[in-house]
Design brief:
By secondary structure, the chain is mostly beta strands. The protein has seven helices and 45 strands. A hairpin with a 6-residue loop joins strand 1 and strand 2.
Length: 656
């Protein structure tokens, strides 16, 4: 029986691959990105700025990349969940705590879904939130500095996939578990999954003044897989919608056993009702163990705090808070249009696109039009909540975004295309091929009340024949389409960092006025800062040495140090005294097993050096800063462990 199942699965996959290969020959013609004047449409003249920022997830790189649209130029890679030698993120002493978890120091993750903060349903350009999928975490990036300033681990979760999506006023960012697990975790047979494993939907509150995050509550759900999510908006504000699959509660050979049911669900969660319940003392405190890591801009340091409890909510204790909307079949994307009326379920194995109506959902709830329940949670009748069906639009629908002009755009993984269709009439009006196997797509503001419906970015999983070959793996890529007219027009291909899963975008003019240019020295509260060259010093405490160092064009102070011994732990605390825009300095020490430091104007950063050999060892500036950058260097003399060489330091004079 098992052999028959595997043969059937292989045969199906072979057909799908053949279809994909036939649909996309890899040969571009004159109707593609080289046609007409498309080059002019992506050209950004020297000195001019792109109209939009696109924040594209790096997938297994663990990072977030920033691209300009329409140029496709890469501006920045923002370190989030992975160490980054360019910025020293996760290497310097200040940012190591950002990567702390209940499992210890975890300097990697699988970053999937960025989302930008909103005010009144419109993107406001203050913060980007992104999920770590592997070790469940949510990170916040401050868009005034383009730096990660907070990471909170999510307990009772595994495969933090239906994350991170924010409500209309950034009241919450959600973190839904992809894999159900025992809650709380315990040793139990995997075969006992059904009925015993649970899913969690975590609502993390966001403080409006500074974005500080805290877990408000966790909704403990039946043991399905919770895949993707989006908040209600407009009339449906106060609700959140999560796609689910594996309503079969299978735990093995999932591609077969989790694909049996004709319909899975979209879970509709009334978070306003649960919030009221919690605010009135409802919920159960559960022991937990998770890290909350916060970067303080005044001290330029991160701290990690281990939290020991979390508030959980059983949906049966809040009647009317959670309902299931039947959705064919194994839905992946769960997308809500700008009006908040339509909830689109993208069934990976469905021939059609299912669109639910929020208004009909409320009517079905009020009139108790239930088809049954799942673990006590009401299941609404499919026909009673159905707004419409997009008939056979393509193969393998995944994700949908909206242009704010009454149109929706859906990616189809198997048929490798973006399909445009009309809300309300459900008719397909255009389609354009992708190269190949497109996953997510993004319209700037396309998951808000106010999309900027000028471009759509398709993020592709495979790019065979599109780029120069680079060994067994070819670059991941994105493709830019102009959607300002009736028909989509492919404008550009551009490579991406890691595997792009999702993106968030907004106008550059929303972010540029808030961009921080430097850190004021008078605001620097770092405990080891030297705010002038007069403050520089070297202090020994046993085998620990602290070097209070400054850097300015074009020297370090001090630049000569003696009296360091083999076996010492030497902490270089380096303050950049510059107060000009875009004048960072770097510092690197031979033999240091961390990374160089890249220090912004007015900032203090620290690296640890543990010398293991006697000698005279140089350090230097790693970031080209002036015409005399090459002269920006110094030396450290290292003596043997039992040496009597006194501790000395100098600048501009010989050490006596």
């Amino acid at each position: 029986m098992m052999k028959k199942i595997l043969k059937s699965t292989v045969a199906l996959l072979s057909v799908l691959v053949a279809f994909t290969s036939c649909n996309n020959s890899g040969k571009s013609d004159k109707s593609g990105a080289l046609a007409g004047n498309v080059a002019e449409k992506v050209y950004v003249a020297p000195g001019e700025h792109d109209e939009f920022y696109a924040f594209i997830s790096g997938g297994f790189s663990g990072q977030l990349s920033v691209y300009g649209l329409p140029s496709g130029r890469l501006f920045k890679v923002i370190p989030v969940f992975s160490q980054d030698a360019e910025k020293a993120y996760g290497y310097n002493e200040e940012t190591k705590p950002m990567l702390n978890t209940s499992h210890g120091f975890v300097p990697w993750d699988d970053a999937h879904h960025p989302d930008i903060s909103q005010t009144n349903g419109v993107i406001d350009g203050r913060w980007v939130f992104i999920n770590g999928n592997n070790t469940p975490r949510i990170a916040k990036i401050d868009l005034s500095t383009f730096e990660t300033t907070e990471i909170i681990e999510v307990p009772n979760s595994a495969g933090n996939h239906s994350s991170s999506f924010v409500t209309e006023n950034s009241e919450y960012v959600v973190a839904g578990t992809r894999f159900s697990i025992p809650i709380p975790q315990k040793d139990m047979p995997i075969k006992d999954y059904k009925g015993n494993f649970k899913g969690s939907l975590t609502f993390i509150s966001v403080k409006p003044e500074h974005g500080h995050m805290d877990i408000k509550f966790q909704l403990i759900m039946p043991g399905f897989d919770y895949d993707l999510a989006h908040p209600g908006r407009g009339a449906s504000h106060g609700w959140f919608f999560f796609s689910t699959y594996n309503s079969e509660e299978a735990s093995t050979l999932m591609e077969v056993n989790a694909s049996q049911n004709d319909k899975d669900f979209i879970a509709a969660v009334n978070w306003k009702k649960i919030e009221e319940y919690v605010n009135n003392g409802g919920g159960t405190i559960m022991p937990a163990n998770y890290a909350h890591n916060v970067y303080d801009e005044s001290t330029h340091m991160a701290t990690s705090t281990m939290k020991k409890e979390v508030l959980t909510v059983n949906p049966l204790d809040v009647p009317g808070a959670v309902y299931f909307l039947p959705t064919p079949k194994s839905p992946h994307g769960c997308d809500v249009d700008p009006s908040g009326e339509y909830i689109v379920g993208n069934g990976k194995l469905s021939a059609n696109l299912t669109v639910h109506s929020f208004t009909k959902m409320l009517d079905a709830i009020e009139n108790k039009k239930f088809a049954g329940d799942a673990y006590g949670i009401p299941i609404l009748n499919f026909e009673d909540v159905l707004a419409g069906v997009v008939e056979q639009p393509g193969l393998g629908p995944l994700h949908t975004e909206f242009d704010g002009k009454g149109n929706a755009y859906t990616t189809f993984f198997i048929s490798s295309e973006v399909v445009k269709w009309k809300l309300g009439t459900w008719e397909v009006v255009d389609r354009q091929p992708c190269y190949y196997s497109v996953g997510h797509l993004m319209i700037p503001g396309g998951n808000s009340q106010k999309p900027w419906g000028k471009y759509v970015v398709a993020m592709n999983k495979i790019t065979k024949d599109r780029y120069l070959p680079t060994g067994p793996e070819v670059t991941q890529s994105a493709q830019l389409y102009d959607i300002s007219g009736d028909k989509m027009e492919l404008l550009l291909d551009f490579p991406t960092i890691g595997e792009p899963h999702y993106a968030a975008g907004c106008p550059a003019d929303l972010i540029k006025p808030r961009s921080k240019k430097l850190f004021k020295l008078e605001d620097n509260k770092h405990p080891y800062a030297a705010l002038s060259e007069a403050d520089t010093k070297v202090i020994r405490d046993g085998k620990t040495v602290h070097v209070y160092m400054t850097t300015i064009r074009s020297h370090f102070a001090p630049d000569n140090i003696e009296g360091i011994k083999v076996g010492d732990k030497v902490y270089f605390h380096v303050t950049n005294l510059e107060q000009d825009y875009d004048v960072p300095h770097g510092v690197s020490m031979i033999g240091a097993n961390t990374s160089e430091l890249l220090i912004m104007p007015g900032q203090t950063e620290t690296f640890l050096w543990e010398p293991k050999q006697v000698g005279v060892w140089p350090f230097y500036c790693t970031d080209f800063c002036s015409a005399l950058h090459q002269e920006m260097q110094g030396y450290v003399r290292v003596s043997h462990a039992k040496s009597n060489t006194p501790l000395k330091w100098s600048l501009g004079e010989d050490i006596e």
